[in-house]
C-alpha cells in the first residue's frame, strides 16, 4: 500500500510538472506576441520623499491581461521570459515604455521626476545592458539622470565578476542603481562595499512587522544607518499604514512607497495624480 501511494504521489507530481511546463510554453508563445503587439502594460507607483511628501520617482511595474490566460503576475511573466529566451526583448520593452512615459511627463512639466525600472538578474550576465540602456535613452530622449535601475540580490548576480563592471558602465552613463528587496537575498557587506549602489530598498517584510516586532524595527534602523554610512539613500517599500510611515520618517528613512501612500496605477491615473498634486502645491504656494 505504501509503495502504491508513493508511486501515485510521484505520478501526481510528474503530471503537475507537465501541466506547469505546458502552461509555461503556452504563456511563452502568448508573451512573445504580446511584446510584439505592444499589449503588455506598465503600472506606476509613486515613491515619495518622507520628509517633504513630494513624489521623487515612479516605479514601473509590469502588468499583463492576456486574452487566453487572464491576469498573469509579474514574477511568472519574468520566469517565463527567462526560461524561453524572451528576457532581453521583455526587458527592452519595459525600459523603452517606462522611459518614453517619463519623457512625456517631463514634457508636461513634471521635472525632476525619476522612473525606477526593475531589471531581471539574468540581464546582467551578458554585458549588453549598458548598450541597451544607452540606446533606449537615445530613442526616448530621456535624460540619464532620471533613470533608476532596480536589481535584486540574486546569487547569480554576485557570482559574476562582470556585475561590478556592468554597474560601473551604467553609473558612467549617469543613471542610478537601487538594490531591491534588501535583507531577503544574498548580499554581504563586501558586496555593499564593492558595488556602486545609490539606493537600498528595505524589503516590505521588515516594514510590515516593524511596528509590532522590536527585532524587525531594530533591523530597519540598522539598514537605514548602514545605507547612510555608505552614502546611499534608503527607500522603504510596502508601507501600509500611517504608523509605519511616521516611524520610518522619524528614523530618517529618505523615501517610501506602499499602498498607504498610493497603489500602483495606470499611466492615465498617474497623470491625473501628478496634475492634482501640482495643483495642490500651487494653491498652497498662493495661500502663503
Ligand atoms: P518589487 O520590485 O519589489 O515591487 C514591489 C511589489 O510590491 C509590487 O508587486 C507592488 O505592486 C507591491 N506593493 C507595492 N506597495 C505595496 C504594499 O503596500 N504592500 C504590499 N503587500 N505590496 C506592495 P508586483 O507589481 O506584483 O511585482 C512583483 C515583483 O515582480 C516586483 O517586486 C519585481 O521584482 C517584479 N517585477 C515587476 N515588474 C517588473 C518588470 O518590469 N521587470 C522585472 N524584471 N521585474 C518586475
Ligand atoms: Mg522593484
Ligand atoms: Mg521590492
Ligand atoms: Mg519584491
TrEMBL record:
Residues 24-278 form the EAL domain. Signal peptide: none annotated. GO terms for molecular function: cyclic-guanylate-specific phosphodiesterase activity. It comes from the Bacteria. This is GGDEF-domain containing protein. The lineage of its organism: Bacteria, Pseudomonadati, Pseudomonadota, Gammaproteobacteria, Aeromonadales. The chain holds residues 340 to 627 of 627 of the full protein.
Amino acid at each position: 500500500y505504501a509503495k502504491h501511494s508513493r508511486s501515485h504521489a510521484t505520478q501526481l507530481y510528474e503530471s503537475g510538472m507537465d501541466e506547469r511546463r505546458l502552461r509555461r510554453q503556452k504563456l511563452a508563445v502568448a508573451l512573445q506576441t504580446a511584446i510584439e503587439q505592444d499589449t503588455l502594460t506598465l503600472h506606476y507607483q509613486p515613491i515619495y520623499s518622507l520628509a517633504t511628501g513630494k513624489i521623487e520617482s515612479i516605479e514601473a511595474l509590469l502588468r499583463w491581461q492576456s486574452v487566453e490566460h487572464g491576469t498573469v503576475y509579474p514574477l511568472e511573466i519574468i520566469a517565463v521570459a527567462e526560461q524561453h529566451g524572451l528576457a532581453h526583448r521583455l526587458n527592452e520593452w519595459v525600459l523603452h515604455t517606462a522611459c518614453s512615459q517619463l519623457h512625456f511627463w517631463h514634457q508636461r512639466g513634471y521635472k525632476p521626476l525619476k522612473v525606477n525600472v526593475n531589471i531581471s538578474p539574468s540581464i546582467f550576465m551578458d554585458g549588453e545592458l549598458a548598450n541597451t540602456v544607452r540606446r533606449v535613452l537615445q530613442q526616448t530622449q530621456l535624460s540619464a539622470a532620471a533613470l533608476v535601475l532596480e536589481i535584486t540580490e540574486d546569487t547569480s548576480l554576485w557570482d559574476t565578476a562582470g556585475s561590478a563592471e556592468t554597474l560601473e558602465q551604467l553609473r558612467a552613463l549617469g543613471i542610478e542603481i537601487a538594490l531591491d528587496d534588501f535583507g531577503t537575498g544574498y548580499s554581504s557587506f563586501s558586496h555593499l562595499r564593492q558595488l556602486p549602489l545609490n539606493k537600498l530598498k528595505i524589503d516590505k517584510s521588515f516594514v510590515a512587522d516593524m511596528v509590532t516586532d522590536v527585532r524587525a524595527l531594530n533591523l530597519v534602523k540598522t539598514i537605514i544607518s548602514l545605507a547612510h554610512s555608505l552614502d546611499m539613500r534608503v527607500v522603504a517599500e510596502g508601507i501600509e499604514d500611517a504608523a509605519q510611515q511616521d516611524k520610518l520618517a522619524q528614523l530618517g528613512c529618505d523615501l517610501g512607497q506602499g499602498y498607504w501612500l498610493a497603489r500602483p496605477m495606470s499611466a492615465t491615473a498617474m497623470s491625473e495624480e501628478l496634475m492634482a498634486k501640482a495643483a495642490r502645491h500651487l494653491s498652497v504656494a498662493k495661500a502663503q
